[in-house]
From TrEMBL:
Subcellular location: Cell outer membrane
Family label: Belongs to the outer membrane factor (OMF) (TC 1.B.17) family.
Biased composition (Low complexity): 162-179
Domain of life: Bacteria
Name of one Pfam family that matches: OEP
InterPro entries referenced in this protein's UniProt entry, alphabetically: OMP_efflux (IPR003423), TolC-like (IPR051906)
Membrane-traversing stretches: none
UniProt biased composition (Polar residues): 105-114
GO cellular component: cell outer membrane; efflux pump complex
Species of provenance: Euhalothece natronophila Z-M001
Protein name per its UniProtKB record: TolC family protein
């Protein structure tokens, strides 16, 4: 029985190929129920096998499956066996939202949701990369904190500059006092009209103005102003870093959403391929041309692909929530990428020029130089405590008891303060500031080396990923053709279900590699732009 089944399978596969070359006809397909002359049937099989074995493997693989006769296969639609059907559909661009303001969170930063509907996601909103950057600048907490730090440093500078002006103060005091009255040596006679009151009350009003000005502070005042200026510049540079890092984080998170969206599409295509392979195996089994083992293999492959699809959809939701967290959108908003992944712009600079550009633009280097200045000025501030302090003052005071005419007093003078010995405290603080200078210089050197490493890594990754894109595109084409041929061979009876499953796996891997290469290239380009530039609201090169 097994030999007869094998003979039937070989004859059908042979006649599929011969029918394409107009050598055999559909009537040669002999089923076990319609065979009346086994001798003639076996003779036809031997002749067909000799003819198909004389064909080259390339000719067998190139057989146009759609032209063969399949009258004896119980198929309602022969397109189910078409190996040229491409189940993969690229991610189509979505219509982005027009206004991003509705995506902003509540204006109350202390709001804490208490109801389920306040944290449930109502809808998935597609946005472009430019809209994502706009949302991040408006809502990201790190960026908002950096802006507040700049405002705070600016007010600290105003405070330091205020020391250059004199200070004017007003002092006013109202005082009422009581004291015993009369002559204590004379007997008290309450009936005497000249008898004084038992107590005597006095009311005084003193009002004074005082003007002070520090003429000489031993270098402390100008040093404090320069420190405040350096601190303001440091915070401004920190804001540039935060904004550029925010741009990179948003771009990277946006690319991650693109990757997971495309990975879901790839996995869905793999599931569709597995479903088609299962249908092929079931149809061939029903026709008596396949085995139960082939069907089981196809079912296992389908189950595996469905699990991969579940994991891919989970990663898709996670990446969308991570993007929303970076953007700082509302509790009920989930964002996704409106555009599918595509290769971004090219990098036109050499590695050496990129390194030099990074040295010119990176704010971290200038920030360490400002820290060095702060250390130098801190030495001056510390030593100023051991130097003389000279100040001028003028005061004017008016006193009135509401009975007599008021009296006024005018005072003018100068004051000298000089700490002759403080136990070495000032010099100790100066030495601490001197060490701060050395630390800033060491950090400058360390940061310079780190910047070069970042540029080199991003540059090399960009080159390799660009090559990987070209290789992956070719691999996808080859894998698609390999799957088509594997299905053709299996449907013709000269291949196995394992070949189809392996071809499906290779195609899924090739599509995933192409997606990874494109995303990694875009990430490397964004990382290289971040490594060489700290210029907010600008790019070194425009991307399409």
């Amino acid at each position: 029985m097994l030999s007869f089944r094998y003979v039937c399978g070989v004859s059908v596969g042979t006649l599929f190929a011969l029918g394409l070359g107009e050598i055999a006809i559909a009537e040669n397909l002999i089923s076990p129920t319609s065979a009346t002359d086994n001798t003639s049937f076996l003779k036809n099989i031997e002749n067909s096998r000799e003819l198909i074995l004389s064909q080259s493997p390339e000719a067998l693989e190139d057989l146009p499956l759609e032209e063969r006769e399949t009258d004896d296969i119980p198929l309602e639609d022969t397109e189910d066996l078409d190996p040229d059907v491409d189940t993969f559909e690229e991610v189509e661009p979505l219509e982005p939202v027009e206004e991003t303001e509705p995506l902003d969170p509540s204006s109350n930063p202390l709001q804490l949701p208490t109801q389920e509907e306040e944290v449930s996601v109502d809808d998935v909103v597609p946005i472009t990369l430019e809209q994502a950057l706009e949302l991040a600048r408006r809502n990201n907490q790190d960026f908002q904190e950096a802006r507040l730090n700049v405002r705070q440093a600016r007010e600290q500078l105003n405070e330091a500059q205020a020391a250059q002006l004199p200070s004017l103060s007003l002092d006013s005091q109202l005082q009422r006092s009581s004291s015993p009255g009369g002559n204590n040596n004379q007997p008290d006679d309450p009936l005497d009209p000249d008898f004084p009151d038992a107590t005597e009350a006095t009311t005084l009003l003193r009002t004074g103005l005082q003007l002070n000005y520090n003429v000489y502070t031993g270098g402390q005042r100008p040093a404090q102003i320069r420190v405040a200026e350096s601190q303001l510049r440091t915070q401004q540079l920190a804001l540039e870093q935060v904004e550029e890092q925010l741009r990179f984080n948003v771009t990277d998170a946006y690319y991650a959403v693109q990757q997971t969206d495309s990975q879901v599409a790839i996995t869905e295509a793999s599931v569709a391929d597995a479903e088609q392979s299962l249908r092929d195996a079931q149809l061939l089994e029903e026709a008596g041309l396949g085995t139960r083992f082939d069907v089981l293999q196809a079912e296992v492959q389908l189950a595996n692909e469905e699990q991969e699809l579940t994991r891919a959809r989970s990663q898709q939701r996670i990446s969308r929530r991570e993007l929303g967290q970076v953007l700082g959108v509302g509790q009920q908003v989930e964002v996704t990428a409106a555009t599918p992944p595509e290769q971004a712009g090219d990098w036109d600079l050499s590695l050496e020029d990129s390194i030099l550009l990074a040295y010119q633009n990176r704010a971290e280097l200038e920030q360490h130089l400002e820290e060095r200045k702060i250390g130098e000025e801190s030495q001056t501030i510390a030593l100023s405590d051991t130097r003389p302090q000279i100040s001028l003052f003028t005061s004017y005071e008016v006193t009135s008891d509401f009975d007599d005419s008021p009296t006024d007093t005018l005072q003018m003078g100068a004051q000298l303060n000089w700490t002759l010995y403080d136990g070495g405290s000032a010099r100790a603080r100066a030495r601490q500031a001197e060490e701060d200078v050395a630390i800033a210089e060491n950090r400058f050197q360390q940061t310079r080396n780190e910047i070069r490493t970042e540029v080199e890594q991003a540059f090399f990754n960009l080159e390799s990923n660009e090559q990987n894109i070209q290789t992956a595109e070719l691999a996808v084409e080859q894998a698609e053709e390999s799957l088509r041929l594997a299905r053709l061979r299996f449907q013709a009876g000269v291949g196995t279900q394992t070949d189809v499953i392996n071809a499906q796996s290779e195609l899924s891997r090739a599509r995933g590699n192409l997606l990874t290469a494109i995303i990694d290239y875009n990430r490397s380009l964004a990382g290289l732009e971040r490594a060489v530039s700290n210029l907010p609201d600008s790019r070194v090169f425009d991307t399409p």
